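Researcher: Please translate sequence to structure tokens.
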Amino acid sequence: MDFNIKVSQICLFQDDIHCLTCSQDRSFLCWDLREEKRISSHIQRTGGINAIALSHDQTFVVTCGKERSITFWDLRDPNPATIINPAHDGE
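Model: Translation complete:
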């Protein structure tokens, strides 16, 4: 396990108790800040995650990363709901 992976971005839930973090190890994690423990983890197949956003109802997440695709996630499911691949190659 590589402990040198840095968090790319953090997203706080409205309750100020839970947050999401994403990193270049291809994962985003859900945390309980009060209990100081990880609640869940989601891992995409390729490329690190650069950015993360949480929907207003706090059940859906959007990530984007090194492979330049946008991934939609339902926090209740470990697999991506939808992946939108980049439209252009390297431009």
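Researcher: Any highlights?
Model: The two ends are 34 Å apart (CA to CA).
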